[in-house]
Amino acid sequence: MATPLMMSVSGIRGVVGETMTPELILRAGSAFARYVKGGTVVIGRDSRPTGEAISRGMQSVLALAGCDVVDIGIVPTPTVQVMVEELGAAGGIVISASHNPIQWNAFKLINRTGAFLTGTEINRYFSMMDMPVQSKPWDRVGTITGNTESHRIHIQKVLSVINRSSIKKKKFTVVLDSVNGAGSVITPELLEQLGCRLIPLFCDPGRPFPRGAEPLPENLKALAAAVKKHGADIGFAQDPDADRLAIVDEHGRPIGEELTVSLATEHLLSKEPGLVVVNLSTTKTVEAIARSHGARFLRAKVGEINVVEEMRKKKARIGGEGNGGVISPEVHLGRDSLVGIGYVLDMMARRKKTISGIVASLPRFAMRKGKVSFDPSAFDSSSLEKIRADFTGEKISDIDGLRIDFVKSGPFKGGWVHLRPSNTEPVFRIIAEGEDSDQADAIYGHFQRIFS
């Protein structure tokens, strides 16, 4: 049975040759041309072997529908967002399935502000996919041009919000695992400008992904070994489209991707207070950091644009998601591993501490994440309603699946669980966090049994 096409606020994702097809490219491109009213569209992609063919197909569809297309090649997702803003384009498309396995590919859709389409916008776009494919006469066809300035522009935006000179003085040794993805060229350029001694691990976009696409601890064994071998100060790991960042400390220990946004939050709030916005699945560490600085704290639905919308409306200082995504309005409103790298190195230089020393000073909790396969079309929300009824009296949010904060006395008190269908894969996610690993495992196990 073919893997279902995933259409959500996170864009359109499918397995190439099954649901990611030429027909889909035609429908999706024609609809986007209609959505941007024939305006300029920036296109970038990650390094998946199917990316070039899909990109060329999408560019042709857009141009034949009257759009001028700016192709910026293999670049991180946040670079496309930055360039939409920089060029004053009507929108952008990132051809990347992000953390999904290599057989997947996807369209991430960006509006004229440089952010992903909101829920309302993407539903309007999806309705346009059912309209007739449009094509302009020969003398109204759009142009297709390249742009080679995107790396420089993005890097300069990152450098403008950190203390470049203090980082250069430290001469940090950094091991970089870009999973041979979109961060493989731009990230070394950033680290070179920061005076780092770079040990590139998987930074060849012409080669396949050498590990699981997600920068999870179990996928970072080679990075951990390289950090220890070279006596590096830190190791950085990205996902294929380089919007997510994970960190390995100087001892070769993955600190967990949940702590990436925690570190960025601590760094920025220590300099200037302000609102923090993260999603419902993000660690309580961020909330505890915000509280320690007297900062306001909000949670939003999962999905980058949901966090971005809250940040934009409330004028947040910092935000992100616990999957390693840092969102800094100082640079642009989108998850960005380059911003995360800049902030972490700036923090280490400013505090004159190792990364492990900084992590040790943060509030810590234990988290357990997992997923079970399911058919999105057959999802029955009544199962969540039954769980909700079983936990009357606890703090409950139902804006995105079901999140339960356990406030009543009992073995789960102080912990929480978030249960929700994924936006990007045909799976149901279970995320639990506790005061320690025993409590987190107990919470996770209780709900895993329900869905197994």
Describe the overall structure.
By secondary structure, the protein is an alpha/beta fold. It folds into 4 domains: 142 residues, Alpha-D-Glucose-1,6-Bisphosphate, subunit A, domain 3 (Alpha-D-Glucose-1,6-Bisphosphate, Chain A, domain 3, 3-Layer(aba) Sandwich), CATH 3.40.120; 81 residues, Alpha-D-Glucose-1,6-Bisphosphate, Chain A, domain 3 (3-Layer(aba) Sandwich); 108 residues, Alpha-D-Glucose-1,6-Bisphosphate, Chain A, domain 3, CATH 3.40.120; 86 residues, 2-Layer Sandwich (TATA-Binding Protein), CATH 3.30.310. It is 36% helix and 23% strand. The chain contains 15 helices and 21 strands. It has a 7-stranded mixed beta sheet, with helices on both faces. Helix 7 links the parallel strand 8 and strand 9. Helix 1 packs across helix 4 and helix 9 packs across helix 12. It is globular. The model has no long low-confidence stretch (mean pLDDT 95).
Assembly of the depicted chains: single chain
Total count of strands: 21
* Structural Rg: 22 Å
Give the overall shape.
globular
Named CATH topology of the largest domain: Alpha-D-Glucose-1,6-Bisphosphate, Chain A, domain 3
Helix content: 25-40%
Tally of separate helices: 15
Q: How does CATH name the architecture of the largest domain?
A: 3-Layer(aba) Sandwich
Which range does the strand content fall in? 15-25%
| Backbone structural class | alpha/beta
List keywords for this structure.
single chain, 452 residues, alpha/beta, Alpha-D-Glucose-1,6-Bisphosphate, Chain A, domain 3, 4 domains, seven-stranded mixed beta sheet, five-stranded mixed beta sheet, 15 helices, 21 strands, globular
